[in-house]
Amino acid sequence: MQQEQANQHILSEGQLLSERRYDIDAVRVLAFGLLIFYHIGMFYVQDWGWHVKSAYQYTWLQDVMGFFNQWRMALLFTISGMATAIIMHKQQPGFIAQRMKQLGVPLVFGMLVVVVPQAYFEAKANGAFEGGFFKFWLAYLSLQSWPEGAFAGSDPGVTWNHLWYLPYIMFYTLALYGIRLIFEKAKLTFFSKINSFHVGGWIATFILVLMLCGTFIYPSFPYRSHALTDDWYTHSLFFSFFVFGYLLIRSDSVWEQMKKHKLRFLLVAIAAYLAMRVVNAMMTEDSSFLMSSLQLFCLYLNRVMWIMTILAFAYSCLNKPAKWLSYGNSAVFSWYILHQTVIVVLGAWLSPFTLGGPIEFMFVFLGTVLSCLAIHHYVIRPVPLLHPVFGVTGKHDKTQHNQQLQVIRDH
């Protein structure tokens, strides 16, 4: 009874259900929008491997990409943890089955259909395949063995490429649901106690958790494979951010503190980034354990503070309805599924024309945005059979569809 009352206090219906958190929706849409820019950048950044690469590559992009790379995926997993908390609180029967279907169907369809052009152009670029796309597709679906390094994920025969995020969210949802059941059966009051944490306590505790991951797990798994089964350092980080988001949105009081301290968060985030760059430049192969610990601290402080800054400013400025947000919520999942394939196809197609870096970039960027927009509106939305495979939820409404098109035209 005590636990149930505590949970009802933490997740009040007025805060999370009756009053929709538009700021969380906005951060989710903007974070996936950043993902599109980031993956276009991967086509152009010097010395960073990707599925296909432009002839025009730039070293200066490494610093720009490196800045966002510190927190972009961690932010998405934090937001996903928040969304999971809201969905779990509704206590709908069959929650797990429904969630697995929502994520699993687009994943399977994406691996068998959407991602295939990425693998095709990468295999051709690597000299691992000769022939047309449909010949490759048939070979891909047959799960045949490929030459080593034919394309990313070619060892099992098929790949999920950028869709790796989906199986990770599925795995984390199952794990968190199991942990929650254990806590409820044991009548533990941990969730009610964390509601009283000051925001500084949240930050310090979470950085400590990340430091433990970096100190004890990273040395045994010093890589990110995105293959799910062997990616334990990545799991330790992203599951931590997933749980962090799940817990953070359950605390009403911390959000007002975040709003109050948002400018301080920004200053600390900037200082943490600069400190991280300085410490990284000082590191050598013979650096002491103390220096390595300082490097980890700066790394995780930078990561956490940028996420807290983004969430704080969003809560302060974006927690209100907006026309662009209505469109973004309806389109973000299908755009996520489509965007990287569009980038790879456009990049591979434009490369022989030697347009020059800036002009080629404009074609790739505009082509990606317009292609995703057109496919979402004119192919996916009007065809109900495509809704499950592209993560489109709710019934298609022609009036709403036309209104969303008008929003795009007006802006």
Give the strand tally: 0
Q: Strand portion, in percent? A: under 5%
**Uncertain spans:** 1-14, 403-411
What is the helix tally? 18
Please give the share of residues in helix.
Answer: over 70%
Intertermini distance: 51 Å
Give a quick account of the main beta sheet: strands, pairing sense, barrel closure. Answer: none
Average pLDDT works out at: 90
Q: Outline, from the CA principal axes?
A: globular
Q: Spell the H/E element sequence.
A: HHHHHHHHHHHHHHHHHH
Structural class: mainly alpha
Rounded to an integer in angstroms, the radius of gyration calculated over CA atoms is 22 Å
In words, what does this structure look like?
With 411 residues, this protein is mainly α. 71% of the residues lie in helices and 0% in strands. The radius of gyration is 22 Å and the shape is globular. Residues 22-376 form the Acyltransferase domain. InterPro entries: Acyl_transf_3_dom (IPR002656), Glucan_succinyl_AcylTrfase (IPR050623).
Q: Would you summarize the structure shown here?
A:
The chain is built from 18 helices and no strands. It has helices at 2-10, 13-18, 22-44, 61-69, 72-89, 95-114, 116-125, 133-141, 165-185, 190-194, 199-217, 232-248, 252-260, 262-282, 289-317, 323-350, 357-380, 398-410. By secondary structure, the chain is mainly alpha-helical.
Keywords:
411 residues, mainly alpha, 18 helices, 0% strand, disordered C terminus
List the topology elements.
Elements: H1 2-10, H2 13-18, H3 22-44, H4 61-69, H5 72-89, H6 95-114, H7 116-125, H8 133-141, H9 165-185, H10 190-194, H11 199-217, H12 232-248, H13 252-260, H14 262-282, H15 289-317, H16 323-350, H17 357-380, H18 398-410
Helix pairs in contact: 3-5, 3-15, 3-16, 3-17, 5-12, 6-9, 7-16, 11-12, 11-15, 13-15, 14-15, 16-17
